[in-house]
Design goal:
The longest helix has 28 residues. The chain has one domain. The strands form 3 sheets. A two-stranded antiparallel sheet has the order 1-2. By secondary structure, the protein is mainly α. Keywords: Membrane, Transmembrane, Transmembrane helix.
Length: 295
Amino acid sequence: MAQIHHVEYGWITPALSYALSVLGSALGLVCARRIRTARSAGQRAWWGLLAALAIGGTAIWAMHFMAMLGFGVEGTRIRYDVPITAASTVIAVVAVGIGLAIIGTGRLNALRLLAGGLFTGLGVAAMHYTGMAAMRLDGTFSYDRIRVALSVLIAVVAATVALWLSMTVRRGLAIAASALVMGIAVNGMHFTGMSALSVHLHERRGDLAGAEVSGLLVPIVLAVIFVVVGLVYALLAAPTDDDRAGSAYLDARRDGVQPAAATPGPGPEPVGLRARSTLGQPGTPFPSRRDTLRR
């Protein structure tokens, strides 16, 4: 059995993977919050897609690959099958997207939450082990079934909590705290699954097909940067409730309709200098002696 190193370069790769999962979770929670307030099916689909890219693509898959940079096996090189690696990305994004669609299209209840969490959690576990299947090395894999089952359970629980948070968390501080918790859950699932792995090296070594980690690192980092920048831009460019209210007010004024909020009500009866300034003007009644004494 070969010696496996999960943090071959020290704690830099786990720290970066955790940072990616927190960043993706925070952006995903902010995008998911817009699903409930969207005014049309197209807007709900748009924010659901952005939330799936943030959580599935950045918080889960990019975190997985970053953690895999620190994975090494003594006595063999490691390469990655590019099509299978790309398929694992699609699995993560689609699984999160379907989970958000399950809980975001109707009234949130326990049945919807459990169904969405189960589907998304199984999808996350499928992404993890598909990514592991993409590895090419001079050996064969074997897994401890108990730890595999534990990793799947963690994935389902983490996905259920993440979906619940995505539909309930509103304030900035709560979103930040939730993202920190989601980062711990995602990394816990990953390293639990990795601890189930054993590698048995082949006696005869051959050429390995696939791409080196260094060849995949640059395009993956660029893709993550592009997704994060795009998500931030979409959030900043999206109109707020105040923007919508202002737009409705301007539309009403342009159509010649006085908005109800801007309709002036009867003001207070003028007193003092303002009262004196109105005396003697046409249509202004002269105050009686009783009114004068009352004032």
